[in-house]
Amino acid sequence: MLATAPDSEGTPMVNSINVDELLESAGRSIQVEKDVPLTLDMGSLTAFDMQPVEMSKLGQGKARDAFLMNLTRDNTQLLFNSLFSLPSTVVEKVKCVQLPAPTTKLPREKPIPKPKTLTKWEAFAKSKGIQKKKRGRMLYDEVAKEWKPRYGYKKAGSDKEQNWVVEVPENGDPYKDWLGEKEDKKKEKAAKNELQRLQNISKEVKLKSEAINQTVKQAHKSTASLGKFQEKSKDEKKAKAKGKHQKFAPVSGDTSSEKEKSLALISKISSSSVSVNKEKAANQELGATIKRSREAERENRANKRRSKMGVKAQTKHFDKKKRQVSRSGKDKSKR
Questions:
Q1: For residue 28, what pLDDT is reported?
Q2: What is the pLDDT of residue 327?
Q3: Which of 103, 115, 130, 265 could share a disulfide with 125, CB 3.0–4.6 Å?
Q4: How far is CA 221 from CA 1, 62, 102, 145, 257, in A?
């Protein structure tokens, strides 16, 4: 039953709407039967319909829109039926339902944030096992015999700091400025803390700038020209190519270096410390000579064959060779 809102005078109206009667008059029912049950995730209020759709029922145009509308209505009805079957409570005259934990894992919109770099003190405390403890704001002052703030105006121990008399140790110099030394230590401690704070800030800024520079370099290298024609910012430095580069000797100009290398190689071969397999070297040279002679004979036979053939026969022969070469290339690409 759905009750209507009260009128302007505050008197609730008697008229009410019966949802079941409306659905029956429209030929609809809250009970929906499906061959494949829905996969429901009530924690996310989501329903997944795994039932295959018949293309004959889908149709086109208005018939398709009507089919999709009916399918959506039935699935939504099943989702609401499961929602109203959950345990509920009434809070301030409103019916509330406690949803279960969601079961569908949704992807993150943004990547997982990287852990923040530790400061020197945080790294030291972690290595030593020092845990941070929250101290109270108020502290008991032994001199004033009352509770005072730990920091700020009228803090605990302020009366002791304002004393103009300083106790001198037994072995201390009575003519030394003990008050000045106390002030110097206090200033030195404050300066040290400020220096550490600035060092932590500069370290964090340096790490961020290095990450930005690395991202910019990768973006430049992702272009077709590997960043050769990419515009650079005002303070951007030229990227240094990493890795080993092969160096070649000059082919013109001063030949003294080449001469020294040749003499060093000859002296190394002729020295007794280096053993050379002369038989193996001779066999390699003999094999290379035989190979060159066979290639020369093969070339001579081909030239004689071409001289005996006519112009048309030569063109047919070369066309046949081209087709064989192209066919062999296609076979290799398929493999």
A1: 66
A2: 64
A3: 130
A4: 67, 52, 43, 71, 37
Other CB atoms within 10 A of residue 213 CB: 13
Distances (CA, A) of 271 to 102, 265, 276, 277, 282: 82, 10, 10, 14, 19
* Location of structure tokens 């303070």: 235
| Cβ-based neighbours of 132, under 8 Å, separated by 6 or more | 125
**What is the Cα–Cα distance from 51 to 80, expressed in whole angstroms?**
19
| Distance between CA atoms of residues 258 and 189, nearest Å | 66
**What backbone torsions phi and psi does residue 58 show, to the nearest 5 degrees?**
-65, -50
Judge if pTM exceeds 0.70. Answer: no
For the chain, what's the residue count? 335
User: Which of 141, 171, 175 minimizes the C-alpha distance to 158?
Assistant: 141
pLDDT for residue 70: 87
Instruction: For 137-171, give the DSSP string.
Output: SEEEETTTTEEEESSSTT-TTHHHHT-S--PPPTT
Residue 156, CA atoms < 13 Å, CB-side half-sphere: 13
Q: Which residue has the tokens 């008229």?
A: 15
Tokens 């020092």 found at: 130
Which class for 292: exposed (0-12), middle (13-18), buried (19 or more C-beta within 10 A)? exposed
Residues 75/47, Cβ–Cβ less than 8 Å: yes
Query: DSSP per residue over 32-54, as a string?
Result: ---SS--EEETTTTEEE--PPPP
pLDDT at 252: 73
Residue numbers in the chain where pLDDT is lower than 50: 1-17
- Burial of 44 by CB count in 10 Å (0-12 exposed, 13-18 middle, 19+ buried)? middle
How far apart are alpha carbons 100 and 87 in whole angstroms?
A: 10
